[in-house]
Amino acid sequence: MKNIAIILSIILSLNVVSAETENVSAPFSSIHDIHQSPDGLSTSFYAWKNGKSVMVKDWIESKVYDTILRKHVSYSPDGKSLAFIATKEWKNILVKDGDEITGFSHVYSPIFSVNWDFMFHAQKNDKSFTVHNWRKGKEYDHIWSLMYSPDGNDIVYQWETVITPRERISSIVKNWEEISSYTQAHSPVYSPDSKSFSYVWVENDKTFIVKDWVKWKEYSRLIGELLYSPDSKSFSYVWVENDKMFVVKDWVKWKEYRFVGELLYSPDSKSFSYIWVENNKMFVVKDWIAWKLYSDISQMVYSYDWSKISYIAREEWRSNILVENWVEIKSYDSVGFPTYSPTTDSFAFLAKKDWVDIIVKDGKELSWYDSYANPTYSNDGKRFLFVWIKDKESFLVEQQMDSNPGVKKETKNQNNTDSREKIWFFQSILLFFKSLFS
Question: Is 181 within 8 Å of 194 (Cβ atoms)?
Fold first, then answer.
């Protein structure tokens, strides 16, 4: 009988050990937009609580705000500093490391460079200006699209000046110098190695691409963004002429399409894909070969080592299908958020089965929580995160990648009562047997 007590002690210790390999946040009304630091060691998210908004960084809640602007969140290179924009008493304020920066009518787009520089743009007295390392820049009517080059050495943003209600001039500022004022200049983009810089120039209803200060072919219209490959050696975009679309890659025009969407390079830059729409059907075109058609295709992603490509497909007579390397893996009532780990072959997506939300991770359906949302991996690939929804409350769950995904674990942040009840259950049994056989 003593052996039974020993076995139960081992079971209890296993549950306690598993309690240390999963973190669960406090409950919130809803959780949105999981953010990761560049090194993957810090996690933050925006949540609603009692009708107000909070930013949660590494399980610690910020002050309460009226709202938080979801796309205006930025980490420093080491993940220790976090900046975001919140609204308080109907004004935008910058919050950086918990400190509220005031004195502006509105504030937007805080960003860090890899060199630790910090920039945002603000409005005051109906004028917009940048603030770079706390120094104010030139005033314009409007400013948007702030960016640093990938190496952190250049600063770029777009500006606009209103001449009359029907006449506006817009252009680009690069390292505090204005590029010649065109009717419109927009969509600045750097190559990943920071050695190439491109933008779109519009003049007299004609559109040009300017790449490395050279004006290229004239177009009637361009769709979407200019795209560099990860190795910076290839360049692509979509050109529109006479209601037809063309994919242009490295200045070569390819086949004419009715509609083209979502250009994508593989991580090693050796493969190039896009979605082609023709006669209300969609194809994935990979390296100029069109694969099986579907009624709808979306959310195309490559694995970290470019060996796999996945996307969500739908046919009129079938449910949503996950397709990986042209093989239909499985169909569900709905499928979304396909995501690969940035460092391993691990793959996960959100699905709805019998109208219940589940996560499918590495081929296994995880359904031991009530409902799920937003599966994602940390940038270092060591953690898997998702939102767990139960009884109208949302929790962020963080699992170590080497933990058992089928075991429900204890929380770092004191709110997973189910796991606690499990441990208390084993403790009660252990105490019963100890009292019986001691």
Answer: no
What's the CA gap between 157 and 143, in Å, rounded?
Answer: 7
Per the CB < 8 A criterion, the answer to whether 363 and 344 are in contact is: no
pLDDT confidence of residue 318: 59
**Cβ distance 347 to 341 under 8 Å?**
yes
Q: State the Cα–Cα distance between residues 390 and 52, nearest whole angstrom.
A: 20
Q: Is it the case that residue 427 has pLDDT exceeding 50?
A: no
Q: What Cα–Cα distance (Å) separates residue 232 from each residue in 3, 33, 264?
A: 64, 29, 13
Strands in 293-355 per DSSP E:
296-302, 309-314, 320-324, 327-332, 334-340, 347-353
* pLDDT higher than 50, residue 8: no
pLDDT tens for 265-295 read: 988 898 898 888 877 778 888 888 887 778 7
Distance in angstroms (rounded) separating the CA atoms of residues 409 and 345: 24
State both tokens at 258.
Answer: 């009715």
Q: Where are the domains of the chain?
A: 1-20+410-438
Taking the C-alpha atoms of residue 359 and residue 417, their distance in angstroms, rounded to an integer, is: 22
pLDDT value at 5 more than 50: no
b/e code 330-368 from CB counts within 10 Å (16+ = b): bbbeebbbbbbbbbeebbbbbbbbeeebbbbbeeeebbe
Q: How far apart are CA 256 and CA 243, in angstroms?
A: 10
* Structure token digits, residue 30: 């809803």
The whole-number pLDDT of residue 288 equals: 83
Pseudo-torsion of CA 190, 194, 195, 201, nearest 10°?
20
Q: Go through the chain and tell me how many residues it has.
A: 438
Q: Indicate the average pLDDT of the chain.
A: 81
Q: One-letter amino acid identity for 74?
A: S
387-402 pLDDT, tens digit each: 988 888 999 999 887 6
Residue corresponding to tokens 């890659």: 249
Residue 373 to residues 138, 216, 360, 376: CA-CA distances in angstroms? 43, 44, 12, 9
**At CA 176, angle to CA 172 and CA 181, rounded to 5?**
35
Three-state SS for 357-386 is EEEEECCEEECCCCEEEEEEECCCCCEEEE
3-state secondary structure of 3: helix
Compute the distance between CA of residue 140 and CA of residue 82 in angstroms, rounded to an integer. 27
